[in-house]
Amino acid sequence: MVEPCLIFGDSKIILATSSILNNVAQEKELTMSIEHSIGAMNQLADALDRAGFSSDDVTKLKQYSKLGDILDVLHERSEIVSITSKILEFVKRVNIQLPRGEFVACEHFMEDNFDFGSNFKKWFLDKVETHDGKEVEINIHKLTKSSVDGPIITELRDKGVVETSLSVLIGLKPYMDKNQWYVFYIKDVNGELRVVSMFRRDDGWGVRAFSVGSPVGWGADGQVVSGNSRNLET
Fold this sequence. Notes:
The chain has helices spanning 11-50, 55-63, 67-74, 105-109, 118-124, 149-159, 166-171; strands spanning 88-97, 100-104, 114-116, 128-132, 135-143, 181-187, 193-201, 204-211, 223-227. By secondary structure, it is of the alpha+beta class. The mean pLDDT is 81.
């Protein structure tokens, strides 16, 4: 392209210099735009890496036909709704009469052929509960699939009250089926929530206690016992 210029003096030089400066400015603007794009891509790559995306995941994301839906979420034009499958199926509700006054754990678990583990002995045998003798409703659910404590507790909170008590465990004995584990969430003598499992055998009762959050899960069809938010004593 021929530069427009005048035919005298230094005017031709001035016009040529103006054109050069204009080209330099355009190149600088293009360079800044490329650097900005690279910076944005690096930020996106870091965000995907922190979220746990693998290279295969990124490829699938690129091929995802509804990326516009994600943009709508970012601009608050829509929202993500988490849908989780339920793991607890309601079985029955039982009314239990709590004792009036003190419930001394060792007085109840040292009889009736109880076989308890070392954790239960350490965490619960010295516990004393106090109740006012009222009747409470207890909910029993069945696990629809194997699960650790976290998802069970989360779902119990949606249904009522997670925590029960040792007196509820004793009061529920007449309603327990043989050869079936029942799971309770009960605070120990130091006030820490533990998970207690109880099993009715032909010759007595098996009781075990575990820390909440143990990697040991509970099998499908196990019975999970919880309180009712309307009237449970804790």
